[in-house]
Amino acid sequence: MDNPQFTEDRPLIIVIEAEPVARHAHKAFVPKGSKKAIVTKTSDDVFYQNLARTAAAAQCRKQGLQFPLDGYVQIKIDFVRTAPAGLKKDEKAWIERGNWLGDNQKTDYDNLSKNLLDGLEGMAVTNDARIQGVHAINKWIGRKPITYVRLWTAPERPMRVMPELLRNLW
Predict the structure, then answer these.
(1) 98, CA 20 to 30 Å: which among 52, 72, 159, 160?
(2) Binning pLDDT at 50, 70 and 90, where does residue 104 land?
(3) Where are the beta strands (DSSP E) in the chain?
(4) Whether domain 12-169 has CATH 3.40.30.10
(5) Considering all CA atoms of the chain, what is the largest pairwise distance in Å, rounded to the nearest integer?
């Protein structure tokens, strides 16, 4: 059975009902007498990645899809996080007006999306090299933490920058 073509108007939607977790810096070391490095991950990273895999598998099964999906994909992500405890009055007002209260790397788009995409790899997509683009990643404060992922099929060949444009840049 072939998987249907998902479009931006009709994407595959994956919902992860948990606080989004930004990927932490991985630590690597080479044990004495070994030639291979060991890379460590935090338990938060692994837990969130497993949640993403489970949610993707459940959605694929629900729609009768074979997974991982084959081909190139594009992704749009909305991260909804709960407000941190112990906010000052002016910080709460800032958030209530729809602004995002940043806390450096913990809420960095890049780190939030890396952890999610690592979790989807091998389940929703064959590998992250097949992801052509991650679009409009939004971060919101809400009452309930949740991540909405919209995934759709991209053109078979990745988009390429025209050579003359590259020449003009250099």
Answers:
(1) 52
(2) very low
(3) 12-16, 27-29, 38-40, 73-81, 131-141, 146-153
(4) no
(5) 57
Q: What is the mean pLDDT of the chain?
A: 77
Tokens of 49: 């990645």
134 closest CA partner among 79, 97, 81, 80: 79
Gyration radius of the chain over CA positions: 19
Contact predicate 112/145, CB 8 Å:
no
User: Could you tell me how far CA 155 lies from the centroid of its own chain?
Assistant: 20
User: CB under 8 Å to 58, separation ≥6 — which residues?
Assistant: none
Domain ranges of the chain: 12-169
Query: pTM for the complete prediction?
Result: 0.72
Read out DSSP for 54-74? HHHHHHHHHTT--SSBPS-EE
167 band by pLDDT with thresholds 50, 70 and 90: low
Res 150: pLDDT: 92
Length of the chain: 170
